[in-house]
């Protein structure tokens, strides 16, 4: 297990290299520059020249890249051009809301989706199954910002149960924290749930038709034992994959929801930085998000081994 | 004493494309302690027939049964789901052909055997564990205490099948259905497993329904045989009689296609021409008429009834007494 983890960690290095080169090039090749944004429309070309000289933006790209990377290796992601902050400082300030939101949405999705998926598979072909599946198809088709606005209107404006927007950090109390996050998390989670329900159903159906399910039934086991102990644990591997992947997109892709609900998360940070051409922050955030993504994937792969003894054995070699 | 009595059993499966009937009017009985063989080609309905005895397929599709199954004074087709659970694995156990795919890959074999024990007996985990190890030992698994904690994929094919047998035996069932238990094993292991099954038959006085397409195995261990073709029993009787004096053309052809030690190896082995018709396309009249060398117009028009003689029963017009009786 330990050697495997170490090997996997080493394997992330090439990925990080490729990502860093790609993001660096994309940003520096895209038109628009921080100088123009900071100095404004009226800046003379001499002023721009001086600014670039000072920030080092007129050096060759390779030189800029290596100085950026050598900073990162020492734990320095650089300073924001606009905010009076280091990149790490900005990220640590914005990552909390995003992670909270991602965790809560995923929790809502899993709690909803897995029982419903198992139920749909168990009652395959019945009206209940058809209803659940149409519902989940609907859930996958609705864009999350639309669902967010509808929920906002119903739960926030008409019923007044939940705050319409805004964010309260965990330090202001767990209840406060959760009530502000509930609406955005529902909007994101419902759509994840639609996907995971379908995945659970189809993974369960695959397992239910296997030989060992019939053999287990021939032992006289209760339907619940068959479904949960024998079928679900086997069906859980593909479900776990989907959960891992969607969790990654929740961390990175909640930009729209964060904007709608005015949550100061990574999404907002990244959008603002792109608009301002804040090179250093964009590069840093993308790299950190990549790290998070890789970390989640590693956790998922390690969980495989916990669920399936055959995977454990293979890893020893 | 009769343990199991099946009368005119039909199993119908409703699918999107219509109804198919893998079992079409099967009648037989099994005595206490008897070892009965069921032989037939793939698709003859042997497995569905045996699984119908504990209604194992009920949940897997839209299944309908006609006829009667009486097991130990119970009307199986009238049992509730809860009563069926008491029957399965407790009074009637099944061992399947492919042991590896019949074991859940995520649990140790010990876990799965203990589960079988505790489903039918209220025992502590510790006692159940001890019992499980005893049954593993009984089936000839070396160092059962360590094997108890093995996962299915860590065992050899023979060991896996022994585990399946141990699991089937924990409740000392009255009837053991062995659905091609040795087909996936090599010959020496096959012999060991057969020996084990026979030893258990005498030790526990357990009746066995042995499903196979291996005629040699039947001859070795079964006291009576049923030959199935397209969901029907076309011939049945004591093993010796069936092997020495087969009546149904299908049985004759099956026996002829069996290689013998002293047969001429330059000659091709006789084979039955054609293939088993599909269930959605069952021939009119006798179901074997499409492949039978003796088929007459009568065979193609009208389904023959069972004719019996001296404990041997055959479903074939050739043995109709009114039309000339027992030809030979």
Automatic annotation (TrEMBL), chain A:
SUPFAM superfamilies, per database record: MetI-like (SSF161098)
Highest taxon, organism lineage: Bacteria
Keywords, sorted A to Z: Cell membrane, Membrane, Transmembrane, Transmembrane helix, Transport
Family to which the UniProt record says this protein belongs: Belongs to the binding-protein-dependent transport system permease family.
Organism name: Amphibacillus marinus
Gene Ontology MF, one: dipeptide transmembrane transporter activity
UniProt keyword annotation of Ligase present: no
Main location: membrane
Transmembrane segments: 9-29, 99-120, 132-154, 174-196, 235-261, 281-307
The name this protein goes by in its record: Peptide/nickel transport system permease protein
Membrane topology: Multi-pass membrane protein
GO cellular component terms, semicolon-separated: plasma membrane
Annotated ranges, domain ABC transmembrane type-1: 95-304
Intracellular or extracellular location(s): Cell membrane
Pfam families: BPD_transp_1, BPD_transp_1_N
Automatic annotation (TrEMBL), chain B:
Domain ABC transporter: 4-255
Native organism: Amphibacillus marinus
Organism taxonomic ancestry: Bacteria, Bacillati, Bacillota, Bacilli, Bacillales
Lipid metabolism among keywords: no
Pfam short name (any one): oligo_HPY
Keywords: ATP-binding, Cell inner membrane, Cell membrane, Membrane, Nucleotide-binding, Translocase, Transport
Membrane topology, from the record: Peripheral membrane protein
Name of this protein: Peptide/nickel transport system ATP-binding protein
Recorded GO MF terms: ATP binding; ATP hydrolysis activity
């Amino acid at each position: 297990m330990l050697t495997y983890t170490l090997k996997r960690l080493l394997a992330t290095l090439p990925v990080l290299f490729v990502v860093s080169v790609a993001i660096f090039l994309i940003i520096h090749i895209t038109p628009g520059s921080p100088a123009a944004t900071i100095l404004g429309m009226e800046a003379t070309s001499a002023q721009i020249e001086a600014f670039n000289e000072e920030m080092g933006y007129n050096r060759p790209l390779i030189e800029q890249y290596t100085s950026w990377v050598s900073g990162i290796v020492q734990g320095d992601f650089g300073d924001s051009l606009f905010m009076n902050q280091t990149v790490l400082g900005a990220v640590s300030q914005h990552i909390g809301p995003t992670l909270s939101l991602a965790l809560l949405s995923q929790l809502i999705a899993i709690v909803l989706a897995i029982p419903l998926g198992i139920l749909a598979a168990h009652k395959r072909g019945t009206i209940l199954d058809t209803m659940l599946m149409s519902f989940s198809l609907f859930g996958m088709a609705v864009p999350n910002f639309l669902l967010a606005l509808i929920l906002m209107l119903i739960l926030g404006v008409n019923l007044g149960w939940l705050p319409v927007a805004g964010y309260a950090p965990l330090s202001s109390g767990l209840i406060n924290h959760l009530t502000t996050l509930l609406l955005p998390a529902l909007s994101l989670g419902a759509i994840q749930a639609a996907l995971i329900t379908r995945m659970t159903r189809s993974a369960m159906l695959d397992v239910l038709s296997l030989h060992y399910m019939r053999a287990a039934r021939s032992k006289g086991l209760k339907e619940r034992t068959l479904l949960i102990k024998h079928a679900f644990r086997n069906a859980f591997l593909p479900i776990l994959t989907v959960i891992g992947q969607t969790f990654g997109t929740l961390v990175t892709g909640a930009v729209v929801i964060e904007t709608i609900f005015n949550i100061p998360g990574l999404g907002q940070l990244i959008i603002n930085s792109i608009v301002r051409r804040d090179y250093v922050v964009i590069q840093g955030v993308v790299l950190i998000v990549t790290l998070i993504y890789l970390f989640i994937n590693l956790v998922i792969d390690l969980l495989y081994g916990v669920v399936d003894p055959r995977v454990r054995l293979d890893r020893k070699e | 004493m009769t343990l199991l009595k099946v009368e005119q059993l039909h199993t119908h499966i409703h699918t999107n494309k219509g109804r198919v009937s893998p079992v079409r009017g099967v009648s037989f009985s099994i005595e206490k302690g008897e070892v009965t063989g069921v032989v037939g080609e793939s698709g003859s309905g042997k497995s569905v027939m045996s699984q119908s005895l504990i209604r194992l397929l009920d949940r897997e599709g839209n299944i309908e049964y006609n006829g009667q199954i009486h097991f130990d004074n119970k009307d199986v087709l009238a049992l509730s789901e809860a009563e069926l659970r008491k029957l399965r694995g407790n009074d009637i156990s099944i061992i399947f052909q492919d042991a590896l795919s019949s074991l859940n890959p995520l649990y140790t074999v010990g876990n799965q055997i203990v589960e079988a024990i505790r489903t039918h007996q209220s025992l502590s985990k510790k006692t159940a564990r001890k019992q499980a190890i005893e049954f593993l030992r009984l089936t000839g698994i070396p160092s059962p205490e360590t094997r108890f904690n093995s996962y299915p994929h860590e065992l050899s094919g023979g060991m896996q099948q022994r585990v399946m047998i141990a699991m089937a035996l924990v409740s000392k069932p009255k009837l053991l259905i062995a659905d091609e238990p040795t087909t996936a094993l090599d010959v020496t292991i096959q012999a060991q497993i057969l020996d084990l099954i026979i030893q258990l038959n005498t030790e526990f006085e357990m009746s066995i329904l042995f499903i196979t397409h291996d005629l040699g195995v039947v001859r070795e261990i079964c006291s009576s045989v049923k030959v199935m073709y397209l969901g029907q029993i076309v011939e049945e009787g004591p093993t010796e009689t069936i092997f020495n004096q087969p009546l149904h053309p299908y049985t004759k052809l099956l026996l002829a296609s069996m290689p013998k030690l002293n047969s001429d190896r330059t000659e091709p082995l006789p084979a039955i021409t054609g293939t088993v018709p599909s269930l959605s396309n069952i021939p009119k009249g006798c179901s074997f008429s499409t492949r039978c060398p003796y088929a007459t117009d009568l065979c193609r028009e009208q389904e023959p009834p069972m004719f019996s003689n001296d404990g041997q029963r055959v479903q074939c017009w050739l043995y109709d007494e009114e039309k000339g009786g027992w030809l030979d």
